[in-house]
Amino acid sequence: SRQIVVIGLGRFGTRAAMTLYQLGHDVMAIDLDDRKVQALTGVVTHAVKADATDEVTLKELGVDNFQYAIVAIGRNTEASIMVTVLLRDLEIPVIVSRAQSELHGETLKRIGASKTVFPEKDGGASLAHDLFLPGVEQYLELTSSFGISRVQVPIKYVGHSLKDSGFSNARDKYGVVILAIQRRDDVILNPDEDEKFINDDILLIAGTDDRVVRVIGTQS
Amino acid sequence: SRQIVVIGLGRFGTRAAMTLYQLGHDVMAIDLDDRKVQALTGVVTHAVKADATDEVTLKELGVDNFQYAIVAIGRNTEASIMVTVLLRDLEIPVIVSRAQSELHGETLKRIGASKTVFPEKDGGASLAHDLFLPGVEQYLELTSSFGISRVQVPIKYVGHSLKDSGFSNARDKYGVVILAIQRRDDVILNPDEDEKFINDDILLIAGTDDRVVRVIGTQS
Ligand SMILES: Nc1ncnc2c1ncn2[C@@H]1O[C@H](COP(=O)(O)OP(=O)(O)OP(=O)(O)O)[C@@H](O)[C@H]1O
Ligand SMILES: Nc1ncnc2c1ncn2[C@@H]1O[C@H](COP(=O)(O)OP(=O)(O)OP(=O)(O)O)[C@@H](O)[C@H]1O
Q1: pLDDT (tens digit per residue) in B132-144
Q2: Chain A residues within an 8 Å CB radius of B122
Q3: CATH assignment of A128-216?
Q4: How many whole angstroms separate alpha carbon A57 and alpha carbon B9?
Protein backbone atom coordinates (compact mmCIF):
# COMPACT_ATOMS: atom_id res chain seq x y z
CA SER A 1 0.00 0.00 0.00
CA ARG A 2 1.25 3.43 -0.92
CA GLN A 3 0.98 6.93 0.52
CA ILE A 4 -0.72 9.60 -1.49
CA VAL A 5 -1.49 13.22 -0.76
CA VAL A 6 -4.55 14.62 -2.52
CA ILE A 7 -4.80 18.40 -2.67
CA GLY A 8 -8.16 19.93 -3.52
CA LEU A 9 -11.32 18.16 -2.43
CA GLY A 10 -13.83 19.02 -5.16
CA ARG A 11 -15.79 16.11 -6.61
CA PHE A 12 -12.76 14.86 -8.55
CA GLY A 13 -10.29 15.05 -5.67
CA THR A 14 -12.76 13.67 -3.14
CA ARG A 15 -13.56 10.64 -5.28
CA ALA A 16 -9.89 10.02 -6.03
CA ALA A 17 -9.01 10.21 -2.31
CA MET A 18 -11.85 7.93 -1.23
CA THR A 19 -11.20 5.35 -3.95
CA LEU A 20 -7.48 5.22 -3.19
CA TYR A 21 -8.25 4.71 0.47
CA GLN A 22 -10.73 1.93 -0.38
CA LEU A 23 -8.03 0.31 -2.52
CA GLY A 24 -5.98 0.02 0.68
CA HIS A 25 -3.61 2.96 0.44
CA ASP A 26 -2.80 5.71 2.95
CA VAL A 27 -4.32 9.00 1.92
CA MET A 28 -3.78 12.50 3.24
CA ALA A 29 -6.43 14.90 1.94
CA ILE A 30 -5.85 18.65 2.00
CA ASP A 31 -8.23 21.53 1.33
CA LEU A 32 -8.73 25.19 2.28
CA ASP A 33 -12.41 24.59 2.91
CA ASP A 34 -13.21 23.24 6.35
CA ARG A 35 -16.47 21.61 5.30
CA LYS A 36 -14.69 19.57 2.67
CA VAL A 37 -12.06 18.52 5.18
CA GLN A 38 -14.77 17.52 7.64
CA ALA A 39 -16.53 15.46 4.99
CA LEU A 40 -13.41 13.32 4.58
CA THR A 41 -12.45 13.12 8.25
CA GLY A 42 -12.56 9.48 9.25
CA VAL A 43 -13.11 8.54 5.61
CA VAL A 44 -9.45 8.67 4.57
CA THR A 45 -6.30 8.32 6.67
CA HIS A 46 -5.88 11.99 7.45
CA ALA A 47 -7.86 15.09 6.35
CA VAL A 48 -6.32 18.53 6.89
CA LYS A 49 -7.46 22.11 6.42
CA ALA A 50 -4.53 23.94 4.88
CA ASP A 51 -3.41 26.26 2.11
CA ALA A 52 -1.34 24.07 -0.21
CA THR A 53 0.32 27.08 -1.82
CA ASP A 54 2.20 27.64 1.43
CA GLU A 55 5.52 25.81 1.36
CA VAL A 56 6.08 25.95 5.12
CA THR A 57 2.67 24.36 5.71
CA LEU A 58 3.40 21.57 3.24
CA LYS A 59 6.66 20.79 5.03
CA GLU A 60 5.03 20.89 8.47
CA LEU A 61 2.45 18.39 7.24
CA GLY A 62 5.24 16.11 6.06
CA VAL A 63 4.04 16.26 2.46
CA ASP A 64 7.70 15.93 1.38
CA ASN A 65 7.60 12.34 2.64
CA PHE A 66 4.99 11.28 0.12
CA GLN A 67 5.85 9.57 -3.15
CA TYR A 68 2.57 10.35 -4.83
CA ALA A 69 0.63 13.59 -5.06
CA ILE A 70 -2.57 14.50 -6.86
CA VAL A 71 -3.28 18.17 -7.46
CA ALA A 72 -7.04 18.11 -7.86
CA ILE A 73 -7.63 21.85 -7.66
CA GLY A 74 -9.96 22.76 -10.50
CA ARG A 75 -10.98 26.28 -11.30
CA ASN A 76 -8.05 28.08 -9.72
CA THR A 77 -5.42 27.36 -12.36
CA GLU A 78 -2.91 29.68 -10.74
CA ALA A 79 -3.14 27.78 -7.44
CA SER A 80 -2.86 24.42 -9.22
CA ILE A 81 0.31 25.62 -10.96
CA MET A 82 1.81 26.99 -7.74
CA VAL A 83 1.06 23.83 -5.80
CA THR A 84 2.56 21.70 -8.58
CA VAL A 85 5.76 23.78 -8.53
CA LEU A 86 6.01 23.44 -4.74
CA LEU A 87 5.51 19.68 -4.88
CA ARG A 88 8.24 19.49 -7.51
CA ASP A 89 10.53 21.51 -5.23
CA LEU A 90 9.77 19.02 -2.44
CA GLU A 91 10.93 16.35 -4.87
CA ILE A 92 7.73 14.31 -4.82
CA PRO A 93 8.45 11.60 -7.43
CA VAL A 94 4.98 11.29 -8.96
CA ILE A 95 2.76 14.36 -9.34
CA VAL A 96 -0.56 14.08 -11.17
CA SER A 97 -2.19 17.42 -11.87
CA ARG A 98 -5.63 18.13 -13.14
CA ALA A 99 -5.74 20.46 -16.12
CA GLN A 100 -8.51 22.83 -17.18
CA SER A 101 -7.28 23.30 -20.76
CA GLU A 102 -4.58 22.12 -23.16
CA LEU A 103 -2.46 25.18 -22.36
CA HIS A 104 -2.91 24.70 -18.62
CA GLY A 105 -1.96 21.05 -19.06
CA GLU A 106 1.13 21.91 -21.05
CA THR A 107 2.15 24.44 -18.42
CA LEU A 108 1.68 21.91 -15.63
CA LYS A 109 3.87 19.42 -17.43
CA ARG A 110 6.60 21.97 -17.96
CA ILE A 111 6.70 22.92 -14.31
CA GLY A 112 6.82 19.38 -13.01
CA ALA A 113 3.61 17.38 -13.31
CA SER A 114 4.44 13.76 -14.23
CA LYS A 115 1.00 13.41 -15.75
CA THR A 116 -2.02 15.60 -16.41
CA VAL A 117 -5.66 14.54 -16.37
CA PHE A 118 -8.72 16.08 -18.04
CA PRO A 119 -11.80 14.59 -16.33
CA GLU A 120 -14.43 16.70 -18.10
CA LYS A 121 -12.99 15.99 -21.53
CA ASP A 122 -12.63 12.27 -20.85
CA GLY A 123 -16.19 12.18 -19.51
CA GLY A 124 -17.51 13.71 -22.72
CA ALA A 125 -15.71 11.13 -24.87
CA SER A 126 -16.95 8.23 -22.69
CA LEU A 127 -20.53 9.44 -22.84
CA ALA A 128 -20.34 9.73 -26.62
CA HIS A 129 -19.32 6.08 -26.83
CA ASP A 130 -21.82 4.83 -24.28
CA LEU A 131 -24.83 6.76 -25.53
CA PHE A 132 -25.99 4.38 -28.26
CA LEU A 133 -25.12 1.10 -26.70
CA PRO A 134 -28.20 0.50 -24.55
CA GLY A 135 -27.35 -1.47 -21.49
CA VAL A 136 -23.70 -0.59 -21.87
CA GLU A 137 -22.39 0.15 -18.45
CA GLN A 138 -18.92 1.09 -19.52
CA TYR A 139 -16.78 1.39 -22.60
CA LEU A 140 -13.01 1.03 -23.01
CA GLU A 141 -11.83 2.46 -26.28
CA LEU A 142 -9.13 0.56 -28.14
CA THR A 143 -9.26 2.30 -31.50
CA SER A 144 -11.66 4.97 -32.61
CA SER A 145 -14.25 2.39 -33.66
CA PHE A 146 -13.24 -0.73 -31.76
CA GLY A 147 -13.62 -1.18 -28.07
CA ILE A 148 -14.69 -3.29 -25.17
CA SER A 149 -18.22 -2.80 -23.97
CA ARG A 150 -19.49 -3.97 -20.63
CA VAL A 151 -23.15 -4.80 -21.11
CA GLN A 152 -26.05 -6.50 -19.38
CA VAL A 153 -26.78 -9.87 -20.98
CA PRO A 154 -29.68 -9.53 -23.43
CA ILE A 155 -32.73 -11.42 -22.10
CA LYS A 156 -32.96 -13.46 -25.26
CA TYR A 157 -29.68 -15.23 -24.49
CA VAL A 158 -30.43 -16.15 -20.89
CA GLY A 159 -30.51 -19.92 -20.46
CA HIS A 160 -28.67 -20.49 -23.73
CA SER A 161 -25.00 -21.34 -24.25
CA LEU A 162 -22.56 -18.94 -25.91
CA LYS A 163 -22.49 -21.24 -28.91
CA ASP A 164 -26.28 -21.41 -29.27
CA SER A 165 -26.44 -17.68 -28.86
CA GLY A 166 -24.14 -17.23 -31.84
CA PHE A 167 -20.84 -16.57 -30.12
CA SER A 168 -18.19 -18.98 -31.33
CA ASN A 169 -14.71 -19.21 -29.90
CA ALA A 170 -12.97 -18.41 -33.18
CA ARG A 171 -10.23 -15.83 -32.90
CA ASP A 172 -11.99 -13.67 -35.39
CA LYS A 173 -10.74 -10.16 -35.03
CA TYR A 174 -13.54 -8.80 -37.13
CA GLY A 175 -16.34 -10.46 -35.25
CA VAL A 176 -17.62 -9.87 -31.76
CA VAL A 177 -15.89 -11.79 -29.02
CA ILE A 178 -17.10 -12.28 -25.47
CA LEU A 179 -13.94 -11.75 -23.46
CA ALA A 180 -15.47 -12.36 -20.05
CA ILE A 181 -18.68 -12.89 -18.11
CA GLN A 182 -19.10 -11.14 -14.81
CA ARG A 183 -21.40 -13.19 -12.63
CA ARG A 184 -22.07 -11.72 -9.20
CA ASP A 185 -18.58 -11.43 -7.65
CA ASP A 186 -16.96 -13.81 -10.10
CA VAL A 187 -15.31 -13.07 -13.40
CA ILE A 188 -15.15 -15.88 -15.98
CA LEU A 189 -12.42 -15.04 -18.45
CA ASN A 190 -12.51 -16.44 -22.00
CA PRO A 191 -15.70 -18.41 -21.28
CA ASP A 192 -16.16 -21.76 -22.93
CA GLU A 193 -18.60 -22.06 -25.86
CA ASP A 194 -20.83 -24.28 -23.75
CA GLU A 195 -21.10 -21.83 -20.88
CA LYS A 196 -24.78 -20.91 -20.38
CA PHE A 197 -25.80 -17.33 -19.74
CA ILE A 198 -27.59 -16.63 -16.48
CA ASN A 199 -29.92 -13.75 -15.65
CA ASP A 200 -27.95 -10.67 -14.46
CA ASP A 201 -24.74 -11.77 -16.19
CA ILE A 202 -22.64 -8.85 -17.32
CA LEU A 203 -20.78 -9.45 -20.57
CA LEU A 204 -17.51 -7.99 -21.68
CA ILE A 205 -17.75 -7.79 -25.45
CA ALA A 206 -14.95 -6.80 -27.78
CA GLY A 207 -15.83 -5.53 -31.20
CA THR A 208 -16.63 -2.54 -33.35
CA ASP A 209 -19.44 -0.29 -32.15
CA ASP A 210 -21.84 -1.35 -34.88
CA ARG A 211 -21.33 -5.05 -34.27
CA VAL A 212 -21.81 -4.75 -30.54
CA VAL A 213 -25.01 -2.80 -31.16
CA ARG A 214 -26.24 -5.60 -33.38
CA VAL A 215 -25.61 -8.11 -30.61
CA ILE A 216 -27.36 -6.22 -27.87
CA GLY A 217 -29.27 -3.49 -29.67
CA THR A 218 -32.44 -5.45 -30.09
CA GLN A 219 -32.88 -6.44 -26.49
CA SER A 220 -35.99 -5.80 -24.38
CA SER B 1 -26.39 7.43 -37.61
CA ARG B 2 -28.46 9.31 -35.06
CA GLN B 3 -29.29 12.93 -34.32
CA ILE B 4 -28.22 14.43 -31.04
CA VAL B 5 -28.54 17.91 -29.61
CA VAL B 6 -25.82 18.90 -27.14
CA ILE B 7 -26.59 21.86 -24.91
CA GLY B 8 -23.71 23.53 -23.09
CA LEU B 9 -20.30 23.58 -24.71
CA GLY B 10 -17.89 23.47 -21.78
CA ARG B 11 -15.11 20.91 -22.02
CA PHE B 12 -17.49 18.03 -21.32
CA GLY B 13 -20.15 19.08 -23.82
CA THR B 14 -17.64 20.05 -26.47
CA ARG B 15 -15.86 16.71 -26.29
CA ALA B 16 -19.15 14.80 -26.31
CA ALA B 17 -20.35 16.74 -29.36
CA MET B 18 -17.10 16.30 -31.28
CA THR B 19 -16.79 12.59 -30.48
CA LEU B 20 -20.40 11.90 -31.48
CA TYR B 21 -19.82 13.70 -34.76
CA GLN B 22 -16.63 11.71 -35.38
CA LEU B 23 -18.61 8.52 -34.70
CA GLY B 24 -20.74 9.47 -37.69
CA HIS B 25 -23.80 11.04 -36.05
CA ASP B 26 -25.55 14.35 -36.71
CA VAL B 27 -24.88 16.80 -33.92
CA MET B 28 -26.47 20.15 -33.14
CA ALA B 29 -24.45 22.06 -30.54
CA ILE B 30 -26.06 24.90 -28.57
CA ASP B 31 -24.51 27.47 -26.25
CA LEU B 32 -25.10 31.02 -25.00
CA ASP B 33 -21.46 31.88 -25.56
CA ASP B 34 -20.62 32.92 -29.10
CA ARG B 35 -16.95 31.94 -28.87
CA LYS B 36 -17.90 28.41 -27.93
CA VAL B 37 -20.35 28.25 -30.81
CA GLN B 38 -17.67 29.54 -33.19
CA ALA B 39 -15.21 26.92 -31.95
CA LEU B 40 -17.59 24.16 -33.05
CA THR B 41 -18.78 25.74 -36.29
CA GLY B 42 -17.74 23.44 -39.12
CA VAL B 43 -16.64 20.87 -36.56
CA VAL B 44 -20.11 19.41 -35.91
CA THR B 45 -23.22 19.41 -38.09
CA HIS B 46 -24.70 22.63 -36.76
CA ALA B 47 -23.55 25.01 -33.99
CA VAL B 48 -26.00 27.60 -32.69
CA LYS B 49 -25.84 30.50 -30.25
CA ALA B 50 -29.02 30.31 -28.18
CA ASP B 51 -30.47 30.32 -24.71
CA ALA B 52 -31.65 26.77 -24.13
CA THR B 53 -33.94 27.82 -21.27
CA ASP B 54 -36.17 29.51 -23.84
CA GLU B 55 -38.83 27.11 -25.05
CA VAL B 56 -39.74 29.13 -28.14
CA THR B 57 -36.10 29.12 -29.24
CA LEU B 58 -35.82 25.36 -28.77
CA LYS B 59 -38.91 24.83 -30.93
CA GLU B 60 -37.65 27.23 -33.62
CA LEU B 61 -34.40 25.28 -33.75
CA GLY B 62 -36.35 22.08 -34.24
CA VAL B 63 -34.94 20.54 -31.07
CA ASP B 64 -38.26 18.70 -30.64
CA ASN B 65 -37.29 16.57 -33.65
CA PHE B 66 -34.28 15.08 -31.92
CA GLN B 67 -34.36 11.69 -30.21
CA TYR B 68 -31.29 12.32 -28.10
CA ALA B 69 -30.28 15.27 -25.99
CA ILE B 70 -27.30 15.89 -23.74
CA VAL B 71 -27.58 18.66 -21.18
CA ALA B 72 -23.93 19.41 -20.57
CA ILE B 73 -24.40 22.65 -18.63
CA GLY B 74 -22.15 22.46 -15.58
CA ARG B 75 -22.06 25.09 -12.92
CA ASN B 76 -25.50 26.57 -13.49
CA THR B 77 -27.59 23.84 -11.89
CA GLU B 78 -30.76 25.89 -12.18
CA ALA B 79 -30.31 26.24 -15.94
CA SER B 80 -29.51 22.54 -16.32
CA ILE B 81 -32.72 21.67 -14.47
CA MET B 82 -34.81 24.10 -16.52
CA VAL B 83 -33.41 22.85 -19.80
CA THR B 84 -34.03 19.24 -18.77
CA VAL B 85 -37.65 20.04 -17.93
CA LEU B 86 -38.14 21.77 -21.29
CA LEU B 87 -36.61 18.85 -23.19
CA ARG B 88 -38.96 16.53 -21.33
CA ASP B 89 -41.90 18.75 -22.30
CA LEU B 90 -40.76 18.50 -25.92
CA GLU B 91 -40.93 14.73 -25.44
CA ILE B 92 -37.31 14.04 -26.35
CA PRO B 93 -37.03 10.27 -25.73
CA VAL B 94 -33.48 10.14 -24.34
CA ILE B 95 -32.16 12.97 -22.18
CA VAL B 96 -28.75 12.66 -20.54
CA SER B 97 -28.03 15.36 -18.00
CA ARG B 98 -24.82 16.17 -16.28
CA ALA B 99 -25.08 16.41 -12.51
CA GLN B 100 -23.00 18.47 -10.10
CA SER B 101 -23.98 16.56 -6.96
CA GLU B 102 -26.03 13.58 -5.84
CA LEU B 103 -28.98 15.85 -4.98
CA HIS B 104 -28.74 17.64 -8.32
CA GLY B 105 -28.62 14.25 -10.03
CA GLU B 106 -31.65 12.99 -8.16
CA THR B 107 -33.53 16.16 -9.05
CA LEU B 108 -32.63 15.80 -12.72
CA LYS B 109 -33.90 12.25 -12.76
CA ARG B 110 -37.16 13.23 -11.13
CA ILE B 111 -37.84 15.96 -13.66
CA GLY B 112 -37.09 13.84 -16.68
CA ALA B 113 -33.45 12.96 -17.28
CA SER B 114 -33.20 9.39 -18.56
CA LYS B 115 -29.68 9.21 -17.23
CA THR B 116 -27.32 11.39 -15.23
CA VAL B 117 -23.55 11.58 -15.55
CA PHE B 118 -20.90 12.70 -13.08
CA PRO B 119 -17.69 13.30 -15.07
CA GLU B 120 -15.59 14.72 -12.23
CA LYS B 121 -16.49 11.89 -9.87
CA ASP B 122 -15.88 9.22 -12.51
CA GLY B 123 -12.54 10.86 -13.36
CA GLY B 124 -11.45 10.66 -9.74
CA ALA B 125 -12.28 6.96 -9.53
CA SER B 126 -10.48 6.21 -12.83
CA LEU B 127 -7.37 8.05 -11.73
CA ALA B 128 -7.33 6.16 -8.44
CA HIS B 129 -7.28 2.89 -10.37
CA ASP B 130 -4.74 4.00 -12.96
CA LEU B 131 -2.30 5.65 -10.59
CA PHE B 132 -0.28 2.62 -9.55
CA LEU B 133 -0.31 0.69 -12.76
CA PRO B 134 2.60 2.35 -14.55
CA GLY B 135 2.12 2.31 -18.27
CA VAL B 136 -1.59 1.75 -17.83
CA GLU B 137 -3.36 3.86 -20.35
CA GLN B 138 -6.85 2.99 -19.25
CA TYR B 139 -8.71 0.87 -16.76
CA LEU B 140 -12.13 -0.75 -16.98
CA GLU B 141 -13.37 -1.80 -13.57
CA LEU B 142 -15.22 -5.09 -13.36
CA THR B 143 -15.28 -5.59 -9.62
CA SER B 144 -13.67 -3.44 -6.96
CA SER B 145 -10.35 -5.26 -7.31
CA PHE B 146 -10.59 -6.91 -10.72
CA GLY B 147 -10.45 -5.10 -13.97
CA ILE B 148 -9.08 -4.79 -17.46
CA SER B 149 -5.96 -2.72 -17.85
CA ARG B 150 -4.74 -1.39 -21.13
CA VAL B 151 -0.96 -1.24 -20.89
CA GLN B 152 2.13 -0.76 -23.02
CA VAL B 153 3.95 -4.04 -23.53
CA PRO B 154 6.84 -4.31 -21.05
CA ILE B 155 10.17 -4.15 -22.96
CA LYS B 156 11.27 -7.45 -21.48
CA TYR B 157 8.56 -9.33 -23.40
CA VAL B 158 9.22 -7.80 -26.82
CA GLY B 159 10.35 -10.47 -29.26
CA HIS B 160 9.06 -13.28 -27.06
CA SER B 161 5.87 -15.29 -27.43
CA LEU B 162 3.02 -15.06 -24.94
CA LYS B 163 3.89 -18.53 -23.75
CA ASP B 164 7.58 -17.79 -23.22
CA SER B 165 6.63 -14.60 -21.45
CA GLY B 166 4.60 -16.60 -18.96
CA PHE B 167 1.10 -16.06 -20.30
CA SER B 168 -0.64 -19.37 -20.86
CA ASN B 169 -4.03 -19.75 -22.49
CA ALA B 170 -5.61 -21.45 -19.50
CA ARG B 171 -9.03 -20.10 -18.53
CA ASP B 172 -7.75 -19.30 -15.09
CA LYS B 173 -9.96 -16.73 -13.50
CA TYR B 174 -7.46 -16.05 -10.77
CA GLY B 175 -4.52 -15.51 -13.03
CA VAL B 176 -3.76 -12.74 -15.45
CA VAL B 177 -5.13 -13.19 -18.96
CA ILE B 178 -4.15 -11.25 -22.03
CA LEU B 179 -7.50 -10.61 -23.68
CA ALA B 180 -6.20 -8.74 -26.69
CA ILE B 181 -3.18 -7.14 -28.30
CA GLN B 182 -3.60 -3.81 -30.01
CA ARG B 183 -1.00 -3.50 -32.74
CA ARG B 184 -1.13 -0.24 -34.69
CA ASP B 185 -4.68 -0.16 -36.11
CA ASP B 186 -5.32 -3.86 -35.57
CA VAL B 187 -6.77 -5.62 -32.57
CA ILE B 188 -5.85 -9.28 -32.04
CA LEU B 189 -8.47 -10.81 -29.78
CA ASN B 190 -7.64 -13.84 -27.64
CA PRO B 191 -4.12 -14.04 -29.04
CA ASP B 192 -2.56 -17.44 -29.53
CA GLU B 193 0.09 -18.62 -27.09
CA ASP B 194 2.69 -18.52 -29.85
CA GLU B 195 1.98 -14.92 -30.83
CA LYS B 196 5.15 -12.87 -30.39
CA PHE B 197 5.04 -9.42 -28.83
CA ILE B 198 6.24 -6.53 -30.95
CA ASN B 199 7.54 -3.16 -29.81
CA ASP B 200 4.68 -0.67 -29.25
CA ASP B 201 2.11 -3.43 -28.72
CA ILE B 202 -0.63 -2.41 -26.33
CA LEU B 203 -1.93 -5.24 -24.15
CA LEU B 204 -5.36 -5.67 -22.70
CA ILE B 205 -4.83 -7.55 -19.47
CA ALA B 206 -7.58 -8.90 -17.25
CA GLY B 207 -6.78 -9.57 -13.63
CA THR B 208 -6.66 -8.22 -10.12
CA ASP B 209 -4.76 -4.98 -9.61
CA ASP B 210 -1.90 -6.64 -7.74
CA ARG B 211 -1.38 -9.31 -10.36
CA VAL B 212 -1.37 -6.85 -13.23
CA VAL B 213 1.19 -4.77 -11.34
CA ARG B 214 3.39 -7.83 -10.96
CA VAL B 215 3.25 -8.41 -14.72
CA ILE B 216 4.09 -4.91 -15.77
CA GLY B 217 5.34 -3.22 -12.63
CA THR B 218 8.93 -4.09 -13.14
CA GLN B 219 9.26 -2.77 -16.64
CA SER B 220 11.90 -0.28 -17.90
N1 LIG C 1 -4.45 26.75 -2.22
C2 LIG C 1 -5.31 25.75 -1.97
N3 LIG C 1 -5.02 24.86 -0.98
C4 LIG C 1 -5.87 23.85 -0.72
N5 LIG C 1 -7.02 23.61 -1.37
C6 LIG C 1 -7.35 24.46 -2.38
C7 LIG C 1 -6.51 25.56 -2.73
N8 LIG C 1 -7.11 26.21 -3.76
C9 LIG C 1 -8.26 25.56 -4.04
N10 LIG C 1 -8.42 24.52 -3.20
C11 LIG C 1 -9.52 23.59 -3.17
O12 LIG C 1 -9.59 22.83 -4.34
C13 LIG C 1 -10.91 22.28 -4.40
C14 LIG C 1 -11.34 22.08 -5.84
O15 LIG C 1 -11.22 23.21 -6.58
P16 LIG C 1 -12.44 23.87 -7.36
O17 LIG C 1 -13.61 23.96 -6.49
O18 LIG C 1 -11.92 25.02 -8.07
O19 LIG C 1 -12.67 22.79 -8.39
P20 LIG C 1 -13.90 22.24 -9.10
O21 LIG C 1 -13.51 22.36 -10.53
O22 LIG C 1 -15.19 22.85 -8.70
O23 LIG C 1 -13.82 20.80 -8.54
P24 LIG C 1 -14.60 19.51 -9.02
O25 LIG C 1 -14.91 19.73 -10.45
O26 LIG C 1 -13.62 18.41 -8.75
O27 LIG C 1 -15.80 19.42 -8.15
C28 LIG C 1 -11.80 23.24 -3.62
O29 LIG C 1 -12.43 22.51 -2.59
C30 LIG C 1 -10.86 24.27 -3.05
O31 LIG C 1 -11.16 24.64 -1.72
N1 LIG D 1 -29.22 28.64 -20.73
C2 LIG D 1 -28.17 28.21 -21.43
N3 LIG D 1 -28.27 27.98 -22.75
C4 LIG D 1 -27.22 27.54 -23.46
N5 LIG D 1 -26.01 27.33 -22.95
C6 LIG D 1 -25.85 27.52 -21.64
C7 LIG D 1 -26.90 27.98 -20.81
N8 LIG D 1 -26.42 28.10 -19.54
C9 LIG D 1 -25.13 27.75 -19.57
N10 LIG D 1 -24.76 27.42 -20.83
C11 LIG D 1 -23.45 27.00 -21.29
O12 LIG D 1 -23.09 25.79 -20.72
C13 LIG D 1 -21.65 25.67 -20.85
C14 LIG D 1 -21.07 24.82 -19.75
O15 LIG D 1 -21.42 25.30 -18.52
P16 LIG D 1 -20.36 25.72 -17.42
O17 LIG D 1 -19.34 26.61 -17.98
O18 LIG D 1 -21.12 26.12 -16.23
O19 LIG D 1 -19.76 24.38 -17.13
P20 LIG D 1 -18.36 23.90 -16.72
O21 LIG D 1 -18.64 23.10 -15.49
O22 LIG D 1 -17.33 24.95 -16.62
O23 LIG D 1 -18.08 23.02 -17.99
P24 LIG D 1 -16.97 21.98 -18.23
O25 LIG D 1 -16.59 21.45 -16.88
O26 LIG D 1 -17.62 20.98 -19.12
O27 LIG D 1 -15.85 22.69 -18.90
C28 LIG D 1 -21.12 27.10 -20.92
O29 LIG D 1 -20.40 27.24 -22.12
C30 LIG D 1 -22.36 27.97 -20.90
O31 LIG D 1 -22.28 29.07 -21.79
Answers
A1: 765 666 777 777 6
A2: 15, 119, 123, 126
A3: 3.30.70.1450
A4: 38
